[in-house]
Write a structure and sequence with these properties.
This protein is mainly alpha-helical and 155 residues long. It has six helices and three strands; from the N terminus they run ααβααββαα. The protein has one domain: Winged helix-like DNA-binding domain superfamily/Winged helix DNA-binding domain (Arc Repressor Mutant, subunit A, Orthogonal Bundle), CATH 1.10.10. The mean pLDDT is 93.
Length: 155
């Protein structure tokens, strides 16, 4: 039997969706001013955080929750712009590694201050510490449940 959302639950869900849509649009607009898409930024951040600035393609896809096809197509576009390199994995000839290039690192460093300022102004500064702690707690619970049930095929 379906457990329908109450009016208050529906309002909560719709409020979250509206917030996410508008925040995503604002973040995308901010990154565009620095010549990046949100997808570019996501890949560059994941690679910059990785040891040696590189990850196996499969690990990168898992880290950012992208399927193989989407990742491959996007990496081709980024490689054409000189932001990443793709090469054979050293320990496994069948595997592919993705490496952040010097240009990718330069572009990320140039975009990061504007991005962080926008995130701070639109999101972080709107919360007090109690709200931030509650959001971290909720996010952790939701991520744990999604990964536990593997609803999105990412767990």
């Amino acid at each position: 039997m379906t457990r329908w959302l109450s009016d208050e639950e529906q309002t909560t869900w719709q409020s979250y969706i509206r917030m996410r849509q508008r925040l995503d649009a604002a973040i995308a607009a901010g990154l565009t001013r620095d010549g990046l898409s949100p997808s570019d930024y996501e890949v560059l951040v994941a690679l910059s955080a990785a040891t040696g600035g590189q990850l196996r393609a499969k690990e990168l896809g898992a880290e950012i929750c992208w399927d193989k096809s989407r990742l491959s197509k996007h990496l081709s576009r980024m490689a054409a712009r000189g932001l990443v390199d793709r090469c054979q994995a050293a320990e496994d000839a069948r595997g592919r590694e993705v490496r952040l290039t010097d240009e990718g690192r330069r572009v990320l460093r140039a975009a990061a201050p504007n991005h962080v300022e926008l995130v701070r102004r639109l999101f972080i500064d709107e919360m007090n510490e109690t709200e931030a702690a509650a959001l971290r707690s909720l996010a952790g619970k939701v991520v744990t449940e999604v990964e536990r049930t593997d609803v999105a095929g990412i767990g």
